[in-house]
Every structure is written in C-alpha cells, then in structure tokens.
C-alpha cells in the first residue's frame, strides 16, 4: 500500500450496514475505544508492528489514510463506540484489495468479525474488485478460521516475510475471487 495521503472527498469511506452492525469511517476519536486492545501485546501478537504505546500515537495513526485505503469502524446500530475495524487497501495493479481487521476481545465469539469482514468484502466486489486477499500469521488460528469460513483459499506461504516485534515471521496469503464470492453468497 502507498503512503501517499489523500483528502479527496470522492475517496471517502462509505458507510455500510449488515444485519447487526453499522460500519462507518474510522476516525481519530476511535483511538479511545480501541487503545486497550491495540496496546495489548497479546492482542497485537499477530500484527506486523508492536503494540501502540500511547493513545496519542494510535490517534495519529487513525488520522492518516493512504490513497486507495479505507478503514471502517465496526459499531452497533444506535451506538457509535468502535468495537474494532476493517481496513481495505487497493493494490496498484487495480482490481485487487488487501484486507485486515481487528475486533475487541469483549466483542469476540459472536460472529461480529465475520459479519463485518463479509460486509466489506461484499462492498469491494460490488464496486468492481476482482480479488481480495489477506496476509495472515501462520499461528493466528482464529484469523485463519475466519478467512476460511468466508471462502478464502490459502494461496501460499511467504517464508520470513515480516520482521516484526516478535522477530522474523512467515506469512500465509489467503485469497478470494469475486467469482468465488458470487458462488458462495
């Protein structure tokens, strides 16, 4: 993903709704709701970066957005407090987006992450993306299970792909084609 930031209104993150959730653009104020999770070494174990050390640092991260990248806060209808987020960044070759997600522990185990990620995937395919992929640590069993439930297929393993706060880590690449999604929808 590019580091180029944008403020182009046409690049705004559109609100999405699912049966139980409202996904809206993630904003800097969401740092307050998500800092406990994103500063926790256990919750951030599978991320390519170390836990955030301050709410101000997380707020600053949430304030920047790269061109072609969207971040949705996961909320419940009628409530604005973020339970997590889903990010999607379009790759330079066009038609391909990478996704990532995080859900606060207190909201896990209810199918909310799957519902939120499915909502974003449906949106991406509806607007013409042909492929969505995710990069996952091989030891992140919960994320692997989520991707597989959504119909993603394991496409490969990149050895020593990430130099993270946990050392060198392999990466599993999971992909989903628009045609796969249409068949399973």
UniProtKB/TrEMBL annotation:
InterPro entries hit by this protein: Acyl_CoA_acyltransferase (IPR016181), GNAT_dom (IPR000182), N-acetyltransferase (IPR051531)
PROSITE patterns recorded: GNAT (PS51186)
Sequence ranges assigned to domain N-acetyltransferase in this UniProt record: 21-173
Molecular-function GO terms, alphabetical: acyltransferase activity, transferring groups other than amino-acyl groups
Pfam family, one: Acetyltransf_3
PANTHER family given in the database record: GNAT FAMILY, PUTATIVE (AFU_ORTHOLOGUE AFUA_3G00765)-RELATED-RELATED
The protein's name in its UniProt record: GNAT family N-acetyltransferase
Originating organism: Limimaricola litoreus
